[in-house]
Design goal:
The protein is mostly helical and 394 residues long. Helices cover 76% and strands 0% of the residues.
Length: 394
């Protein structure tokens, strides 16, 4: 039995810890364009190999979150979080000694499986358990984009100073900095009965949850096809890598503002229109990325990319979390997000190969259109009789 003081899941320090931990766990993804650009120059990787490298860690996260329904309500969140942080730090340091591309891919996969995946599963389940779910997710995304902005700004300079190994050391230092405040992490979330009582007033169908998860998958598949090659799209305009890093970091800063706007809006103006507006805007941004001969168009599209993303994402995740009356499937948010990211990286890499990035842009536009269709199906389901209706849409 633990002798440590219990931490209330609704406390500010618990939510702050979860926001910072989720930011550390998503640092690799949020700095992916610069990381892959440095890796491509250092290891002489082609487009398909870059897609595989991006997909490896994200695939590990996907597998961990998929299994979460079996263990997330049974384990001690504090101790498993400490283990996850240590794996993240050690794994990045071990990447410095990788002898070949295959070893690097294997290590990135293990970091995702036992490090990032554990941290994201625990923190996202916590966000789904708190009373103000939409706002908690918005704070989380603000933390992720804030750290990502800092990483995108600094990593090109770190790479110029010490190459890929210096970048890996910088990434490894972040989880180590969080270890001293691990005691702010609750040992458990809400029990199933509490979570169910918070949301349920009768039988609620799981179809809206399933449709919401599919929508997330499609959306993120398109987004990651763009994000994986955002640095290469910038390079095609003739911009230097340090300038591309600056543009992407400013874009991440716009994402930070988007998350803050979402947290401010809450449910003041409803919570159903933000996601479909984001789908449409991202399809238009993908079309703008096709105009890669004009640097000013690339800069404008990059600045809007994360801002629009973080306007719609908290509401999409909050919608699914509120529909999940058992509290068990909220962790699958990460499963479907990361599955979409893996598919986007791999398919984008296949489409791009050694050629231009235009096929990835067209692919992203198609994914956004498909996400609109599945989101419409959620709305259609909500118009069925009350016993099947999402409470959040009542």
């Amino acid at each position: 039995m633990s002798t440590m003081m219990p931490v209330d899941i609704e406390s500010k320090r618990a939510i702050f810890w979860a926001v910072m931990a989720s930011a550390a766990a998503t640092l690799f993804f949020n700095t992916l364009p610069v990381f892959l650009g440095v890796a491509a120059e250092t290891l002489q990787l082609n487009g398909e190999q870059l897609g595989q490298l991006a997909a490896a860690e994200i695939g590990g996260i996907c597998l961990t979150s998929t299994s979460a329904v079996l263990w997330i309500r049974r384990v001690n969140w504090r101790w498993i979080s400490i283990a996850g942080l240590l794996v993240m730090a050690a794994g990045n340091l071990l990447c410095m000694g990788a002898d070949n591309f295959s070893q690097l891919v294997a290590l990135r996969f293990l970091i995702g499986l036992l490090g990032d995946g554990v941290m994201l599963t625990v923190t996202y389940t916590l966000f789904g358990d708190v009373r103000d779910t939409d706002r908690a997710f918005a704070f989380s995304i603000a933390g992720q984009t804030g750290l990502g902005m800092l990483g995108l700004m600094l990593m090109p300079h770190i790479a110029e100073w010490g190459g890929l190994n210096a970048v890996l050391m910088a990434i490894a230092s972040v989880p180590l900095l969080l270890l001293p405040i691990c005691l702010w992490m609750p040992e458990r979330g809400r029990n199933r009965e509490t979570v169910t009582a918070r949301n349920s007033s009768g039988r609620v169908s799981t179809w809206p949850v399933a449709l919401g998860l599919v929508t997330l998958f499609l959306w993120f598949m398109g987004l990651n096809a763009l994000w994986t090659f955002a640095e290469r799209i910038g390079a095609e305009t003739g911009l230097a890598q340090t300038k591309i890093g600056l543009v992407l970091s400013l874009g991440m800063g716009m994402g930070f503002l988007g998350a803050l706007v979402s947290s401010w809006m809450g449910d003041r103006f409803g919570r159903l229109w933000q996601a479909p507006v984001s789908f449409v805007c991202h399809a238009l941004i993908a079309a703008l990325f096709l105009q890669h001969t004009y640097a000013v168009v690339y800069i404008g599209a990059a600045l809007l990319f994360s801002f629009i993303w973080n306007i719609g994402l908290p509401y999409m995740m909050g919608l699914i979390a509120r529909a999940d009356v058992s509290g068990r499937f909220t962790a699958w948010l990460i499963t479907f997000i990361t599955a979409g990211q893996v598919a986007g990286s791999l398919l984008g890499g296949k489409l791009v190969g050694d050629g231009t990035t235009a096929p990835a842009c067209f692919f992203a536009m198609g994914c956004c259109a498909a996400a609109m269709v599945t989101y419409w199906l959620i709305g259609f389901w909500a118009k069925t009789p009350p016993r099947r209706r999402l409470q959040v849409m009542n």
